[in-house]
Design brief:
alpha+beta; 2 domains; four-stranded mixed β-sheet; 7 helices; 4 strands; elongated
Length: 184
């Protein structure tokens, strides 16, 4: 940690690097923006957390200009309609972690079907969309995506009278136990 503010780190970046970071921010690519700031400034003592704070300030500055990734609907009626469109009989609802270099960790909400067996995406729950969906509600120790997915998945499973499973909701990652598999 340094005594330099996020704004001072920002001002210390060369103009072409600032343009690159803002380009990532404007297309809602948080992680690539953080990596650019971190890689350019880490030799001068900037840590990963401070790089995140620099990028956060850019998100605040460009708030209304950011081309946000569309939020998947998480209301019960939309999820019921999406589950009804899955081919085959829905036998379970499952939430699983996934991630990429644009959004970091997020949760996929899936309908597991039989006849034909398969997994069908119902919603992709990114951190930012989960925070917007939850409003002022505190997710506690859970990642906001996990909290929103758990709530929506349980409600949907209850409505459809099928089991719900979210292996490893406490920690983002791909090390959670295997997914459910539908048979026949």
């Amino acid at each position: 940690m340094t005594d330099i503010s996020p704004g001072q780190w920002w001002e210390s970046l060369p103009p072409e690097v600032r343009d690159e970071v803002d380009g990532h921010v404007l297309r809602d690519a948080r992680l690539p923006a953080v990596l650019v700031v971190f890689e350019v400034c880490r030799a001068r003592g900037l840590g990963l957390h401070e790089a995140q704070l620099v990028v956060h300030e850019r998100y605040v500055r460009h708030r209304d200009r950011i081309a946000r990734t569309s939020d998947s609907p998480l209301d019960l009626e939309s999820l019921v309609a999406r589950a009804a469109s899955a081919p085959g009989r829905v036998v379970a609802i499952e939430a699983v972690w996934d991630g990429d270099t644009v959004h970091d960790w997020f949760v996929l909400l899936l309908a597991v079907t039989a006849g034909p067996a398969g997994e069908h995406p119902l919603a992709t729950i990114y951190r930012d969309s989960a925070v917007r969906h939850l409003g002022d509600e505190d997710p506690g120790p859970l990642h906001p995506s996990a909290f929103a997915a758990d709530r929506a998945g349980r409600a949907l499973a209850a409505r459809l009278s099928v089991p719900f499973r979210f292996a490893g909701p406490d920690t983002p990652g791909d090390e959670a136990p295997g997914r459910l598999r539908a048979h026949g």
